[in-house]
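Cross-check.
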Amino acid sequence: MASSSSTSSLSSADLDDLQAFLKDWLRHTGRTQADLRRALQASSIRMPVLLEALVRTHSQQGLAGLAEQLCHIEEVWQAEDAGEGGRALGLDLSDSLGQLDLLLQEIRQDQQP
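Predicted model, tokenized:
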């Protein structure tokens, strides 16, 4: 997701990458689009609506803001899971945080001159 400015718009390839990432992330964490809708306070669970909410964050705060939002959602979900004694699915949530950390690292590298 390279960009010349931290608030430039996402290309269609960037949106495709973001959508693929979201689907993998949700599957890996055992979450659904409904969970993401609640976290984003979006009006629908449909992927285009979820992406629209994330594009708004990107347009206001850039890629770093988008990554921070996703990391915050992950932290909230982990706190919920810890409160429930962990999910019955037995997922290693540290792996999903690692995936988000790699995304944030890639974004920061893309933003360097």
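The helical segments are 12-29, 33-40, 47-83, 93-111. The chain has one domain: 12-111. Passed to J.P. for a second look.
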